[in-house]
Write a structure and sequence with these properties.
Length: 403
Amino acid sequence: MLPRSAMSLLDYVLQSLGKMAFVSGPRQVGKTTLARQYAAQRHGSQYFNWDIVTDQKKLLKTPYFFSEMPGAEHKLVIFDEIHKYARWKNYLKGAYDGFASDYQFLVTGSGRLDLFKKGGDSLLGRYFSVPLFPLTIGELGHRAVSFAQFLHTVASDLPERGDDDHLSQLMVFGGFPEPYVRQEQAFYRLWSAERRTLLIRGDIRDATRIREMSLVEMLAHLIPERVGSPLSYNSLREDLGVAFETVRDWVQVLAQFYYLFHVHPYRARLNRVLRKEAKVYLFDWAELTEPGPRFENLVALHLLKATKTWQAAGEADVGLYYLRDKEKREVDFVITNGRQPACLIEVKLSDPEPSKALWYFQERLEVPFAVQVVSQTGVLKRYRQGKRILWVASADQFLRCLP
């Protein structure tokens, strides 16, 4: 299955902008597969993998080996795991500066690629990131939805038909390609345990100076029960028996390696709103056992993927936040456009009546659109207050409006 939004972004970065494309995303999300599928659609390409010893020798012996490729100009060169080469930044800088007029460069790797890009980025101005996320309903339906199209849809009519089969399968098996395609519980459990072990005792151990890897594993086991709530570092510190700064840094490392992601509070033009504590969600929501948090996490990943895709395409300055005040009124997600709230999203497992908090924040912040997403199928209600529109919609229908 081709990830259409990522394919479109690759075309935009490589061909329209003429930059290197850095494909980043969670372990086992399909970055190498994406690169190979993209290359299969192109005339003339060469694949290089640093993990293959013969490829290593080829690069060390003839650094710009790809220039000996026969064929037409603007050929595609794919570098997989190149960040494991000690001098990878300078190498790619030289390749781009010397050959960008004739070659296009696609770079993929694990979560470490984003980590290693930070600090003294000698490649600045030569690349753009192409985020790759787990599968979503829009991806499975082969829909590439722009931000303008999303706003038009919530302003007019949400789809009356949904993708309930896709939603049910995503809820059980998550959005990573291999377990989603296999759809076997036993396979998912084995795959999930191996992925977490390789992530922590492989990627994170090799790229950081953390010694207490067993405690990082414990942290990864503690995070799922805190999904969807403002994260308390003090609570985690007490559970793990480490310093506040240590647990904060470890959570950040888990985010850098795509185990989890943060949703920060929106600093609204209101008094008594939370401004500090972020909520956390997992890239693999199928790890969660309780249906409520799992469903909220699934919606969170869909929204994160949409906002990051729109950002990467340069469509708008969009962001993803949440709202909560000291009276405990909360809206799960806020999509912003240029720091102004464009759409509020509340997630309910089984309540088809509009949330009072959703009405409250939509009115106080004058947000044009709000959506309450529910897990039941066949729910589609529209409410209007002046120019403001509020929907209550089934997840399989609303999530079709996202890329």
